[in-house]
Design goal:
single chain; 126 residues; alpha/beta; Rossmann fold; 7 strands; 19% strand; globular
Length: 126
Amino acid sequence: MMSTQTNLSTILVFHSARVVRTVIREILEREGYVVRATGDLGIAVDMVRESPPDLLIIDVYVADIDGHDAAVYLSQKVPNMLVLMVAGLPDDQRIALEMVDEHFDVFPPPFPPAELAAKVKELLEK
């Protein structure tokens, strides 16, 4: 069902898999969010500089960089940006604790579109 509300929140989807980026983008655009997506860190940095997003949705492992490291790097450019990791916590407890220390939310796939939309809304309304 398409949302009739207009939402001015901007979301950056940073995921290696093009199909995952596309699906997440479509789900959130139907909810009225402005969504930009990439699988490249350089492009993500440019997007963050051009128009800082309210929320970064990122995979735990992205292309040639650890997703957590990429999220920390991008968060330094936009200190108030929320981060949602769309993968299960890695087995390495040190990395899991770092995600908690950085206040990154984790949302494990697979997820129904309505659950993703609800999680994003919950984060942006905090």
